[in-house]
Amino acid sequence: GRIVHLADYRPTDFVLERVDLTFELDPTETKVEARLIFHRREGVDAKAPLVLDGDDLTMTSLLFDQIEMDPARYTATPESLVIRDLPESTPFEITVVTMINPEANTQLMGLYRSNGIYCTQCEAEGFRRITYFPDRPDVLAVYTINIIADKAANPLLLSNGNFLGGAGFGPDKHFAAWFDPHPKPSYLFALVAGDLGVVEDTFTTMSGREVALKIYVEHGKEPRAAYAMDALKRSMKWDEEVFGREYDLDIFMIVAVSDFNMGAMENKGLNIFNDKYVLADPETATDQDYANIEAIIAHEYFHNWTGNRITCRDWFQLCLKEGLTVYRDHEFSADMRSRSVKRIAEVRHLRSEQFPEDAGPLAHPVRPTTYREINNFYTTTVYEKGSEVTRMIATILGRDDFKKGIDLYFERHDGDASTVEDFIKCFEDASGRDLKQFSLWYHQAGTPQITVSSTYDASAKTLSLSLEQMIPATPGQSTKEPMHIPLRFALISENGSESTASAIAGGTVSGDVLHLTERAQTFTFAGIGSRPVVSLNRGFSAPVTLHFAQSNDDLIHIARHDSDLFARWQAITDISLPILTSAAKTAQAGGAIEVEPAFIDALLAVAADEALEPAFRAQALSLPSEADVARELGGNNDPDAIHAGRQAVLSAIAKAGTEVFRTLYAAHAANGAFSPDAAGAGKRALKNSALSFLSIAEDTPALAAAAYAKADNMTDLSQALTILAHRFPEADETKAALATFEARFAANPLVLDKWFTIQATIPGADALIRVKSLMQSANFAPTNPNRVRSLIGTFAFSNPTGFNRADGAGYAFYAEQILAIDPRNPQLAACLLTALRSWRLLEPVRAEHARKALESIAASDALSTDVRDIVERVLK
Ligand code: HT7
Ligand code: ZN
């Protein structure tokens, strides 16, 4: 693959005025007729040809202004259509017919079939697999779509925009016409046809227009779409109230399909979803599923303004829509649920997914400047770090100026294909601030490391806080400039009162935000009567790693008193992480692990504190993961030792806290009627955490088996099954529970995905044998991305001891799977391959096995661009 550079951007030579598409659907021979009206852009060379993108296309006819085109004037290959001798300035019409095979489309890009349903996925470059087109996001046009299909098999014919009309078409067929009045890029095109059930509702917008809402799912699954519908209506309302954004068509549709490469897609007026993020009821969905559905429904809906009305000029600007839209969905979930608990979950996710990306061979800026395969840039850096960068703009500007800036963005750029620079300029113009240094966050990769020290001078009544920032080298960026890092803080006095201090020297502090802008900076606070404890980066105001050697006493003070719950959780994490790393080292050296009682007491005090919300207490009890410990150790990692060390710490907590956990479990065991809301979810999380510790303390499957037997919702059921399988894999109770689960949910693939995941993540070297045998199960489908991710993906991403077997068999198996999946679905294969990105942090024997597996992939001469791009960067 060719490397694309941001610096090479220039507009197209021809302006596209209109698009009319007619689809004659057939499972294997779909005819697509595209009528495209263009004119040459002013100032463009009169000889310049029209170059259209294609991917694997077969053209059967080409007309110029309705007349068959002279073959001497064009060149058609599967990858492009080049047309010469075109008018100098007058508009002209090209009519091109292509034949495509949806049934054979296993990449799930372009027009494909999922369980007999025709559907599309065009972002980023899937439209060119449907017809020849200037397939880039800065080409905006108005689309009219005609769909002709067999009526019995496809009663439903959907596309973007508003429904124009439909009628019979010959004896067995019918047709439907759709018109989308909003100019859009091709990546937002969508078509769905088939036979589906529907859940309907309406929403009245802030200006009083009634919008029809429809969620299409497989027949019989309609009741499981109720929660998604509720989340959609709440999203529409919230976007009006918080961002002043109103919906702009007469109808908004969501279609759930079972074969989908990502979570969902924001096609204008016709979102297409992975059914995993639509379907839920208490019997089949966990609390996490409900939270994901709420967030993703909101995310795709919010794209209607941040992505669709204002789109991206080129794919380098992907964070313009994704970072901003993730920020919006985070804020939405924070408003719908507990803000602090949501923030803790976001930060856990950022640290476990984005920080390793930023620290490894795949590191790239939020706004990259080159790519070889755009599909590989739908990353956690673009999405989640992109969101954090937006959040920092809000922190620096404050609520009012942030709102002015975003309002200006909507006003100034509605209808545009924009850039990150356009976005930043709106905040500069609205606030009068210079964001030049801040914008380095878009351009410099790597997680800033901040070393902090504080000194209190009792006689001078001053506190000095010294900060030094270091941004690690990343691929293609060996040196970095100091960045503008906004750190929320408080000085907490002995009695727990908080202040942000008065007189300050050494840098800018506005309200509770300390602005670190230089490589090294000392802030001095005057008039501080007694030594305070410094709470820094409250609310995780900047996505950085702090190296702040605070004493355990200070951290416990924060954990007890900080009014910022996030900071309290962070303090608990800062105490527990060194305990876990030292336990891992002790395990590696073969020593006996001891855990400081003061830590256990502090943790149990939080667990038992009825003044704290249950979800927060559950978060506190969920110690840093094995991956977190590996990251903290930072090299020569032995996953078996990390696991053993962490288990020993969990055991110590379980034994010391048996009474606390027994009380908690009893208090929350009877939850009453199930409700998927945050409060109910928090109680279940705390109860199941207590169950897990009790099962460790008593070392018997009996408790979890009893919980499994009486569970009346999927959260409790799957948690009990996880405890059984992960703690007591050989117990009869476990075997029985796995068998009843499989039988009970045999007809429900999304639920069986949980069954696959639970077994694929059982710790220990035997996991590989289990995964291989589960792949033979009748319920496993190697072509379905959800099945593959839940079995093979979770084995690699979430089973550190199983995947990283010391003999390297996990890696060898994985390499084989990648090579088998790649020809079918390159995007899925490339995404799975990123599980090996941190291989250099492993101890030498495992690292060598991992390198060999990667090299075996690289040695294939049939790799997709997607996999080739990842494997070469990971090995570099
Ligand atoms: N904007 C959507 C991205 C997406 C996608 C990209 C490549 C291949 C398949 C895909 N499916 C969806 C998802 C989103 O961020 O909302
Ligand atoms: Zn998105």
Q: Would you give an account of this structure?
A:
Residues 553-876 form the Peptidase M1 alanyl aminopeptidase C-terminal domain. Pfam families: DUF3458, DUF3458_C, Peptidase_M1, Peptidase_M1_N. Residues 20-188 form the Aminopeptidase N-like N-terminal domain. With 876 residues, the chain is of the alpha+beta class. The chain has four domains: 17-302, tricorn interacting facor f3 domain (Immunoglobulin-like); 311-443, Neutral Protease, domain 2; 449-549, Immunoglobulin-like, CATH 2.60.40.1840; 565-875, Alpha Horseshoe (Zincin-like fold), CATH 1.25.50.10. Helix content is 41%, strand content 22%. The strands form nine sheets. It has an eight-stranded mixed sheet, with no helix packed on it. Helix 15 packs parallel to helix 17 (714-727). The longest helix has 34 residues, at 380-413. The chain is globular. The chain starts with a strand and ends with a helix. 51% of the residues are buried. The mean pLDDT is 97. The protein binds (3S)-3-amino-4-(1H-indol-3-yl)butanoic acid and zinc ion. (3S)-3-amino-4-(1H-indol-3-yl)butanoic acid (HT7) is lined by residues 121, 123-124, 261-262, 264-266, 299-300, 303, 322, 375, 378, 827.
Rg from alpha-carbon coordinates: 28 Å
Major sheet details: 8 strands, mixed
- Rounded average pLDDT: 97
Hetero compounds: (3S)-3-amino-4-(1H-indol-3-yl)butanoic acid, zinc ion
Number of strands: 34
Family: Belongs to the peptidase M1 family.
InterPro entries: Aminopeptidase_N-like_N, Aminopeptidase_N-like_N_sf, PepN_Ig-like_sf, Peptidase_M1, Peptidase_M1_dom, Peptidase_M1_pepN, Peptidase_M1_pepN_C, Peptidase_M1_pepN_C_sf
EC number: 3.4.11.2
Domain Aminopeptidase N-like N-terminal: 20-188
